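Section handout 9: paired folding examples.
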Amino acid sequence: MAISRARLIAALAAAASLAAAAVAQNSQAPESLLPPGFGEPVAPAPPPVAQPNGAVVQPLPGTPLELPDLEPSPTPTPTPTGPSDEELAQYEMPLFARRSLALVGPVGPADGGFLPGAFGAADGGYLQGLMRRLSAPLPSRWLSISLRRALASRVSTPEGLHGADFAAERAWLLLRMGESVAARSVLQSVDTANATPKYRQVAMQAMLATADPAGLCPLTEGAGNSERGWVLARAMCAALSNAEGGAKPLMDAARRQRVASGVDLALAQKVVGAGLNSRQAVTIEWDSVVQLTTWRFGLATATGVPISDELYQTVGSQVTGWRALAPAIPIADRARAAESAAAMGVISNAALIDLYAALDAGEETPAALGAIASDLRAAYVGADVATRMRALAQLWDGGESPQGRYARLILTARAAARIRPGDGRAEADRIVAAMLSAGLDRTAQRWRGQVDDGGDAWALLELSDPEANTRLSYGAVASYTGTGDAALKRKLFFAGLAGLGRLSAQDIESGAEALDVRIGAANSWTRALDRAVSERQPATVLLLAGIGMQAQSWRHVPPAALYRIVAALRAVGLGGEARMIAAEAVSRA
């Protein structure tokens, strides 16, 4: 007689837990609950594991977590017999429903994704190295958006990589970019039956980053019996699925093994307490916690435990994106994170407006956020132009940092598009920049001829013009004064125009020498970029563009690198992205 799915899960979980309890631990450091992250040192990668199909599975390195060493079990316990193969087969997907590992990703060309050959014939190990070397988040919102699109596309698995590992590498980079939802989607485009060790490590990180411990449950059956995170995951899943026997034996086994302690164990207990028929009430105390981890973020967010701003300051900026995308966090608590995430490219203009619209409609919205929401409403539907312009100016002036000021441009992009050129001439620079921050390039072109030559708005319109068919002279570049650091912005303006093909070869050489922008310098990065362009690999070009933009802000991005990036993107058919990145450089420098 067939057993029920709940009984099957319970039997497997119990068997795995009892087997784990019998494993004696050696003197080596315990394995981490999580893959490396949050600025922790990364250990050397373990050797590759050969797979039956000849592909190579390279597990992600682990890092020690500050947890007590595991104690050996005093009395080995025999592993009970699990379900038979015939019983398990009843829950396997039929062959026609299984997804191929040769083509992996959630977004197809019809949905805006890249074509399957976007990485071309690039070697899998080479692409893996690029993704691991890329430091994220990137300073460019538009490059991040384009790279997310490439990483989430349904593309062919490169030679030398297992399909599940390729998905894991892409998801791991997306997580570092703050793109928790996209990372999870990439992982979920692989059948769990094809999971590899690396895939499971990144999947745990992604499910925690999206605050969904239940998402770990399909992967617990094949996970290691002694890995700390999975030992606790089995207990949580037993509670969430109301498995026969419950989570108590598994949690007791985890305590005996000293799998975790303190807040890490308490958070797992709190998830268990959220299961059916649970009578547990767990209080989380953060007083002794000095470092936020993915485990703590994911389980606390999933169970509605607030995390202090002080703890958020102990982690990298990628968590800003995770926080902004987490629906379990109250809107008021993620509004500021959402603005920063918009500047990173994680949150869209429309999503940011929706968030503040919800705050405006709320009854318990904090006064400061309510004022922003009120100004945004006035910017869109104010009684007259003067009211709308005043509201826009208040929002723009309210940005507390360069990133915050750019986020306010994104927030007001469509409100700025409602201002007629004749009505907003005094604020033309910020109005045009706001429209371009959301990609409203054609709408922005209405301001052509209505702005002062040599100003920021003029430069942005020249860089973003989708119909540009004439070239400028170097004299026009030299006349650009701009606001702020005029010398740097002139170099970036020149680099953007040159990369877009808006200057003649002679003017490019003259400008490069006059401005000291060494566009002809060659190194391993430029040669790799040229090779990816010649082989028509747009996704590889985007990865290399990210490698060339390893900087804290646009002020530290070399103009020569911008030239190379813009020219390469344009050459592989990403002209729109190239124009937006060039305009963004001038807006944010």
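Moving on to protein 2 of 2.
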Amino acid sequence: MKTKSTPMVFALAIAFSAPAFASKTASEVQAKPASPEAPLAAVTVFGEKIGSANVGRSYLDHEDIERQQAGNVAALLDTLPGVDLSGTSRPSGQTLNIWGFNKVQDVKVIVDGAPKGFEKYRQGSIFIEPELIKQIEVNKGPHTSLYGNGGFGGVITIETKDAKDLLLGDANLGTLLKYSYQSNNTEQDATAAIFGRSEDRRFDGLVYFTQRESDDLRKPNGDLFRFSAIDAPSSLAKLNIRLTEDQLLTLTAMQSRSSAWAPFAALGEDAPAPTEAEINKFGWDEAWKRKVLYRDQEDTTYSAKWRFNPSPLINMQASYGYSKTNQHDQRSASASVGSFLGSLGNESWATYTDKLAELRNESMFSSGPFAHVLSVGTQWHDNQRDTLMYYPSSVALKNSTYNFGYFQPYYMPAGQQKTQGVYVQDAVSYGDVTLTAALRYDHITAEGVPNRALRYNSPLAAAGHDYSEARFEGFSPRLGLFWKANSNLSLFADISQTWRAPTIDELYSSEYYVSSDVHSSTPGTSRALDVERITAARLGAMWNQQGLLSANDDAQLRFTLYQNRVADNIGPRLGVLVPGYSFDSRDKLPPALSNYRNLSGFKTEGLEIESFYNTRYFFANASLSMQYGRRNGSQRDPWGEDQPVASIAPDKLIMGLGFKLPEQGITAGWQGKFVGEQDKVLAVGNVYRLPPSKGYGLHTLFASWQGRGDVLRGLEARLTIDNVFNRDYQPYLSEGVTGVGRNYKISVSKIF
């Protein structure tokens, strides 16, 4: 690990010389008592019970989420090894990177059974209010059969809060009021909720509302991170119905909105400052607004989940999830009218809709000396996107090949993709050894929507504008081995092969073709694309020890080594367009050359170490992740020299120390995040290049107090201080954008 940060070296020394850190004690991993004197939670765990079912998984529970007081889900997950935030701190400007995979289709996000997949060009992908979340599970790598078509980086499963999580003791009705404040951007958040359950416990439900509102964030040097202000209301309604002793029906509705002036690329750089001449002509406020746009966004999620568990042979779940994200962008009336063809014009509309229906069953039985956990399931997923932009240039408004200014962005086409999948998995145990074999089959159809503009939807064969249906199908086998060597040590190994079909963007993006004299060198859609394929392997060990240093402590340690080999990866056709291509031979290119192509593949590999230690009064944790990636050829020239994978995150060490006073309801501690430098980057001038980054260390302090006794019961106060030393830093995956300065976060809540 390369770094110039002394704290980084010191932290590493502690991490590998100290005893293994661990998580909750045995008593704390049981159901939490309703008494206000319940033990205080410690830190994130990688599994309350070590077994084959939670290999490769990391968790954030309610206490982890509340402690961070984060403004977005990506910031929460950035504290886990192998999971890194991409993008910026600007609202709606985050995506996730797991093990070097950062495309939306490579990191699946499921909220209460509903898929969340927003793939709009240069925008974030996760718009979930952290205040509504109860827990998060991250299953890293492509090693689960539950979801098909992609997910090479992993699957993130988010569960929202329930009434039972908030009710005090035996109460059947309650309300929550909460106020939060953040100093960096003078953010003020208000939350109110009402929740309850019936006397017979058959029904419980809640209605939850929260509002975030702030000014712009400030960088460590005091400068404004312009157009990062927040105005975002969110709401959640949830109902649980126990139809019978064996059946539970859960209905969820969630919505979030945001409206603000923002740069077109929420993921990227600051808005360019206006010139003095522009300020003199338009005034200060309008001169700045001409550089950005007004974005109105709405994100809606509905889900229904039915569970039926009458016997070990029948543990059935049927679910339906619906997710829809609308984004409407409009530039100032004084903005240029011919400068934004490549950034969605002067006004744009984008709607992404996902529907997911699923039926699965898990059976537990024995056959002679073998114990089985047999899972079977089927899924139907419909992904649909509608896009439109208004490009009012003087040429477009008078030109029928531009449809007089209204057409789909050629790099963000509209279309629909449907997936049907079935899978079977059997975890067979013999003594202390479990062998898990799984096979999944997926069938996918995709169809584009012909562009309204004829220059991107030409009937001429030389254009290659084909928006017709494409079909893909294939199997995904997986094999896992888990051995409980003794009462404390377990070893595991997994190998998986799977694939993903090209997205709507990859299949149906096109460039212009007006005539043989007026056309792009790569005008065609990419209907001939093959699927991306991955072969992934991981192995490691998990160790757990209770009573390590004292009678009631608990220690856990996990090592994981992994490797991912991707073949036929999909990328835009840039640079060297065909073998032997040179600028002088550009006129000899084949006609209808596709916009996207399959590339030569790449490899990523890495190491993760996670450790936790917990006692009644003390807790500590440390996790280290190290990644490496190499591409066969390059994204611009598949036949050229090998290059680094640009999305590989720097080495990252997360450490934490803290104490608890259960009788007084007090928890306090420190968390350090130490990131190594990243100098394995692409050459200057490469369109995929991220600038190199220096190593840095960030420190966070946190404290919480929960009221005790009848009078103070349900009262809670929290303090979190991020970037305590106001360190100036530039995260590598933020494309060189400076991070956020010191931030005091305070919250006070009361349950009545």
